[in-house]
Every structure is written in C-alpha cells, then in structure tokens.
Here is the input.
Amino acid sequence: MTYVVTDNCIKCKFTDCVEVCPVDCFREGPNFLVIDPDECIDCTLCVPECPVNAIYAEDDVPDSQQQFIAINAELAKNWPTITEKKPAPPEAEQWENVPDKIKYLER
Here is the structure.
C-alpha cells in the first residue's frame, strides 16, 4: 500500500510532509505535491504533518478523490524529488478546504 496526496494540496502545497519522509518519495509540481507509489514505504509519517489533511492511505482515499491515486503515479514519473520544506505559496491559506480544485492542477 502507498500513500496518496489528494485535492486539498492543490494551490496549498505546504511542504511539511517532505521533511519527515525517510525515502524521499515526494515529487513537486508547480502547485501540488505527489507521492511516488514505487518509493513510498507506507511509514505514515507524512500524514500528521500535512496541515490541510490532504494525504491518505491508498485504501482510505475518499470516493470523490479516487482519481488522485492515478494522478500521483502519473505525475511522480515526471516531477522532481523534493526533500526540504519550502515556504507555502502566499495564498495557500485561502485555498485550504476549497472543494473540487482538480481544475487548478498545473501539470
């Protein structure tokens, strides 16, 4: 099983989670993070670090967020690894808990 970053990360992109990852499985895009399913070791350390609750175990991804399992796998192949915390985007807090942000995902 792997962990999956879902919709609430889009445009928030807090990077607290990347610092605790022991295998550097996070990948960074323009306004979203993903987890590489081939690298994730199911350690759970990232889940409590996400301030917007955007990370789920693959088996626990809500029905409305299921497409993010494939999105994480796809984008992880092309995006660079991120291992250090960076400042969140200036408008991150405004985007917290905004529903249906998939249309804003920059690939």
Observations:
- The chain has a mean pLDDT of 97.
- The first strand starts at residue 3 and ends at 5.
- The chain has one domain: 3-83.
